[in-house]
Task: inverse folding
């Protein structure tokens, strides 16, 4: 029995199945439930879910439940497979007298099965560690940026609320409008629409105001947050490099000392 179960533990096979599942879910989106192709793809999705379920059973059988759950990746696999089970129940739900219509909303959870693909990324544990470290380092700066957006949004609301502009109808919409300006994408559209029909001086002041927001927040501010995030994420690599350089310097110093010591002995 165990040799058969080990087939389901082949990492290349599992990776192939995960990629196939992504293709099935993608392709199925182009068909409607009444079409034959849709039912074929649903069947494939069901059997892929069944494969993952057997894989889970195989791992628990070989490792034991306690050892299996010691791995964070195994816990993630278990959760994703559980989330995909409603999809399989719905596929088998054509039984007479059994109403499983409530599972229709849960079928979207089957997409989460494909998240298992991340465990096959090389050095993923190292990347996750760096990501966590970067989040911690940039969290306060990100919060500060968020508060700045809120303050500027509220300020802009009171400045432009009498203009009857859609972007500043209330404080929440105003904050969202300023957030869009911070992202830089299409930032010029808002000041252009606001300056339309206004005097030349008002038009210039509007463009200066929003240009300052883009420069200070969208370019400089977000660049600072991004640089802190990236620098912290790769700092572990920099630390390793610095340690290697220090080790090389130590060895060179030792070689130089040994060389000088040998020359002193020869001269004496």
Result:
């Amino acid at each position: 029995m165990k040799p058969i179960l080990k087939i389901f533990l082949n990492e290349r096979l599992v990776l192939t199945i995960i990629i196939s599942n992504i293709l099935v879910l993608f392709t199925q989106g182009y068909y409607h439930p009444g079409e034959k192709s849709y039912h074929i793809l649903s069947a494939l999705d069901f059997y892929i879910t069944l494969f993952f379920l057997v894989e889970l059973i195989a791992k628990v059988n070989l490792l034991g439940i306690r050892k299996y759950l010691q791995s964070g990746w195994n816990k993630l696999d278990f959760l994703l497979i559980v989330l995909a089970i409603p999809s399989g129940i719905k596929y088998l739900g054509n039984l007479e007298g059994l109403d499983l219509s409530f599972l229709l909303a849960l079928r979207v959870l089957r997409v989460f099965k494909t998240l298992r693909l991340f465990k096959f990324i090389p050095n993923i544990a190292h990347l996750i560690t760096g990501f966590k470290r970067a989040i911690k380092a940039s969290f306060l700066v990100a919060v500060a940026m968020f508060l700045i957006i809120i303050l500027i949004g509220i300020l802009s609301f009171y400045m432009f609320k009498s203009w009857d502009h859609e972007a500043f109808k209330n404080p929440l919409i105003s904050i969202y409008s300023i957030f869009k300006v911070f992202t830089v994408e299409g930032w010029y559209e808002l000041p252009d629409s606001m300056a339309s029909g206004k005097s030349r001086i008002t038009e210039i002041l509007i463009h200066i105001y929003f240009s300052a927001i883009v420069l200070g927040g969208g370019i400089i501010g977000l660049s600072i947050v991004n640089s802190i995030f990236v620098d912290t994420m790769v700092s572990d690599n920099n630390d390793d490099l610095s340690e290697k350089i220090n080790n090389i310097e130590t060895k060179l110093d030792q070689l130089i000392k040994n060389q000088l010591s040998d020359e002193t002995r020869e001269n004496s």
Notes: Confidence is low (pLDDT under 50) at residues 95-105. The chain has ten helices and no strands.
